[in-house]
C-alpha cells in the first residue's frame, strides 16, 4: 500500500514528465498497430494477386 501511495505522489509531483511518458507510450502503441495493419494488408494483396499467376514449363527440345 505504501508503494502505491509513493507512486501516485511522484506521478502527481512530476505531471509534465508523466504526461509526456503517457503520450509517448500511446503513440508507440498506435504506430505498432498501424504498421502491423499495413503489413497484413500488403500481404493479403500480394497473395490475392499472385494466386492468379500461372507458370507453364515445357521440356527443352521436346517438339
Task: Give the topology.
Elements: H1 2-13, H2 15-50
Structural write-up:
The chain is mainly α and 63 residues long. It has one domain (1-53). 76% of the residues lie in helices and 0% in strands. The chain is built from 2 helices and no strands. The chain has helices at residues 2-13, 15-50. The termini are far apart. The mean pLDDT is 89.
Continuous helix count: 2
Number of strands: 0
The SS-based structural class is mainly alpha
The separation of the N and C termini measures 86 Å
Apparent shape: rod-shaped
Estimate the strand proportion. under 5%
Helix content: over 70%
Structure in a nutshell:
By secondary structure, the chain is mainly alpha-helical. It has helices at 2-13, 15-50.
Features:
63 residues; mainly alpha; 76% helix; rod-shaped
